[in-house]
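Kindly inspect both lines:
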Amino acid sequence: MSLFWRLGIGFLLLLGLCWGSASLSAWVQTRDTINELFDTQQLLFAKRLMALDLAAPDSAALPKNKALLHRHRGDQDDDALAFAVFTRDGKPVLNDGENGRRLPFDAEAQGFHDGRLTNDDDAWRFVWLTTPDGRHRIVVGQEWEYREDMATALVASSIVPWLVALPLMLLLLLGLVWRELRPLKQIAQQLAQRAPDDATPLAAGRLPQEVKPLIAALNGLFSRISTMMQRERRFTSDAAHELRSPLAALRVQSEVVQLAADDEAMRLHGLRQLDAGIQRATRLVDQLLTLSRAEADDARSAFQPVALQPLLQEAVTAQRSAADSAHITLQLAATARPVIQGHALLLSLLVRNLLENAIRYTPEGSEVVVTLESRSLRVEDNGAGLSEAEMQRLGERFWRPPGQEKSGSGLGLSIVRNVAQLHSMQLSFSQRQGGGLCVALRW
């Protein structure tokens, strides 16, 4: 069942329940008020009868209403009040000439009592008083049905208009709900017709304030999905583009090995080249996967406190053999022990790529100095350095400075840049005093 119909049925039940409860409460309160009013009226009327001279009334019964008023008698009810006066032994002295003639005598009753008229089954309300001299008994009665009809009429006069207004109110309320739900239906239609790769934000329009956070969350989700799809497409495109050359080289080396026949030297050379090509392809795939992971926004969910000084020590130790093979001095100078919120694996990959680049592209006999401070990390070498124009392009995907003799894919500093951005670090490149390149990270 739709939300519209659920709300409609719910409103109908709530309105019916509230109207029924209000009607019952109004009827009970009105009935109690009328009973109090008429009890007071009966007692007051009986007290006024006590003030009459009942010793020698002219007649035992007053004239009937019809005899007194032949015309213009108004809207009367004979059950409104009836009275009778008796002697102590039950002899009728005076009555109203209507129902008072049938009021039964009761020698013991005093105050309010319920009873019936003579030869009548309708319930009446009686009040009995005895005159101060004890010679007469006065009774004033009123039919219960008269009181109930009065209470029902008063309640109906106030509730019936609401009974008429409730259906109209319900229709207007349902119309308002339908009007307010229309934007949600339009959003549902937009989502149903939306292309899988469409990242266009949904327009909030005249949506209720309570729904706008949901639309904002959906727009954020669409943006993240679009970014993820673009990243996956870029990864696929980069992998297809960059693996083409290494795979072609591997195929050539495989052919060389096959053509070597009995030439042992050529076959060994081909196998060595094949092994080197496999290592380069493996390293390229590893870098592509690392770059893709570094670009993922969800890596922030795995952030935790990371101590940089032990991380740098491990990275320097891991690169020590490569530096020794290239006759490069690798030094670590830590003047502080900062702890930052980050992804430990990605930070270790950042440091590893900085050290690998420095060792790979620094001439033999040089030195690479890693300096750790409380708010910064620097990796400096004393190589040939780069021009200002070349430093501006450092970190671009698959870009390498011209004239490089060392093999590489141009992804190392791209990984560094993406990991730095993920950790809100500022990455900068500058010329080192005395020659060389300085890569600095600040947080």
